[in-house]
Design a protein that fits this description.
Length: 283
C-alpha cells in the first residue's frame, strides 16, 4: 500500500462522499474511485458500502481507517524529525489579530507536544488581511476566519460561530432579543479600508455596501461604536467591553474559523498542524 493511496482512502472515509473527497484532494472523482477500487483489490475486501443512500465504511474499512491514520501520522513525524535534524524544521503561522480563542491555546499546546523540535513563528495581522499573509507568501498556514478569496488555497473549516450586532449599550436596539440586518439598514457601519478582500468586506458589512468610519483592528471597531454610535458585526460570544453590547443577528450565517494553506503544499508540518487544529477546535 502506498502512503498516497492511504491518504486518498482517509479522505473518502472522513468525508463519506467521493465528490467532496476528490475536491479536498484536488483530483478528479473518477481517478479517486479507481484508486480506491485498486486499494480494495489489494486488501481483498470492500472498504465502503456504496448505495443510493450514500457511502459508509465496512467493518474492514473501519479497521483500515484506524491503521491508516496511525501510519500516516507516523510517516509525517518521520519527515518532521528528519527536517529537524537537518535544521529546517520551522513553521510560520498567520493568526488574525486579537485572537484570544481558547481553542487556539489548546492547538498551540498540542502542536508543541507533538513537535517539540519545531520552531513556530507567529505572524499576527489586522482585520484587513483575512489570509494573514498567505496570499503574499509570508506564512505557511493561516489560522483565521472566512470568507475570503481562496484562489490557490486549501481551506479546512474548524468551527462555526454565531454573530451579532455590536451596539452601544444605550442604543434603542440594544434591548432587542434579536435583530435582522435590515433593522440596521439606515445606520452607519464601521468598515474596512478600500482594497480589503471583497468577500471578507461584504460578510462583515452584512452583505450590503456601507458608509461609516474605516477600521483595521478589533479595538478600533469597538471604539468606533463607543464614540460614534456606529454599528457593525462581531462574534456573539465575545465580551464587547464596558458601554457596549451584542445582539444576535438572526439572518446572518455564522463566522467560520478555518485553517488555510497553499494548495498542493505537501509540507508535513502544515498537514500535522491542520489535523491537530481539527481536534483542538472540536473539544
Amino acid at each position: 500500500m502506498e502512503l498516497r493511496t492511504l491518504r486518498y482512502f482517509v479522505a473518502v472515509a472522513e468525508e463519506l462522499h467521493f465528490g467532496r473527497a476528490a475536491s479536498r484532494l484536488h483530483m478528479s472523482q473518477p481517478a479517486l474511485s479507481r484508486a480506491i477500487k485498486q486499494l480494495e483489490s489489494e486488501v481483498g475486501a470492500a472498504l465502503f458500502d456504496r448505495s443510493s443512500a450514500g457511502v459508509a465504511l465496512t467493518p474492514v474499512g473501519t479497521v483500515l481507517l484506524d491503521e491508516a491514520r496511525a501510519l500516516l501520522d507516523r510517516a509525517d513525524r518521520v519527515r518532521v524529525r528528519v527536517a529537524a535534524a537537518a535544521g529546517a524544521a520551522t513553521l510560520t503561522v498567520g493568526i488574525l489579530g486579537d485572537s484570544t480563542d481558547p481553542a487556539a491555546t489548546r492547538l498551540a499546546g498540542a502542536y508543541r507536544r507533538r513537535h517539540p523540535d519545531v520552531e513556530v513563528r507567529v505572524r499576527e495581522t489586522d482585520l484587513t488581511d483575512p489570509t494573514c499573509g498567505l496570499h503574499a507568501g509570508l506564512v505557511d498556514v493561516a489560522l483565521t476566519r472566512g470568507p475570503f478569496d481562496g484562489t490557490g488555497l486549501s481551506v479546512k473549516e474548524l468551527r462555526a460561530d454565531p454573530v451579532g450586532a455590536l451596539l452601544r449599550a444605550d442604543d434603542p436596539l440594544a434591548r432587542r432579543e434579536g435583530l435582522k440586518s435590515a433593522d440596521l439598514a439606515d445606520r452607519r457601519w464601521f468598515r474596512f479600508p478600500a482594497g480589503t478582500d471583497p468577500l471578507w468586506q461584504a460578510y462583515w458589512n452584512g452583505g450590503e455596501p456601507r458608509e461609516g468610519p474605516v477600521v483595521r483592528a478589533v479595538q478600533e471597531c469597538r471604539q468606533a461604536v463607543l464614540w460614534n454610535g456606529t454599528v457593525g458585526m462581531t462574534l456573539l460570544d465575545h465580551d464587547p467591553g464596558e458601554g457596549l453590547t451584542v445582539v444576535p443577528l438572526v439572518d446572518m450565517p455564522p463566522s467560520r474559523v478555518v485553517a488555510a494553506w497553499h494548495e498542493g503544499d505537501t509540507n508535513p508540518l502544515i498537514h500535522s498542524f491542520v489535523r491537530i487544529a481539527v481536534a483542538a477546535y472540536r473539544e
